[in-house]
Write a structure and sequence with these properties.
This protein is mainly β and 181 residues long. The protein has one domain (4-180). Helix content is 4%, strand content 35%. It has one helix spanning 92-98, and strands at 4-10, 20-21, 48-50, 54-62, 67-75, 83-91, 125-126, 132-135, 139-140, 150-159, 174-180.
Amino acid sequence: MPATVQAQWFGNSATLPAGLNAETGVTWNRDDTQTGSTPVPIPTATGTNYSYLKVLQLAVTGTSTTTITNRTVRISSAFAAGLGMHWKTDTQANWATSYNQQAASKATADQTASNSGATAPTGYTAITTSAVQYDNTSQATSATGIGTTLLMGVELAVDSTYAGGPGSASLGNVVLGYDEA
């Protein structure tokens, strides 16, 4: 029988290593919360603004005798022009110390040089409609939890070519996948 697996959101270091159910939704914004309401501003001139990092990972919530590998990420539908989403992985220890966003955003700094919403910043990979592996750590499903030292940080990029207006973007779903055998 397969394990029960849930996408989880990890906020500030207080929630590590336990996450919160992300299947109820995650709002990309400038809050270090799962569903905050501080929007990512649309630049009024050439430039790209970034959301706070939203940290995600798949967690076993119902055990089995299988193994999970090949964790992937994709978006369910293409982004509107001027929008992009990017990911990077790091260890739990680094997320807890280096990326704690209580005082300030640890996302990519806003920039004014170009409209590059769809282009991944250095150290990140763009999320597209094609699944890309972000973690291939083997995880036995005999215990609950994330079972990996890696977490994935995801940020939204908005550049000045985005014409949808504030609050009008429908991003589709971030889809986390995995293999289980």
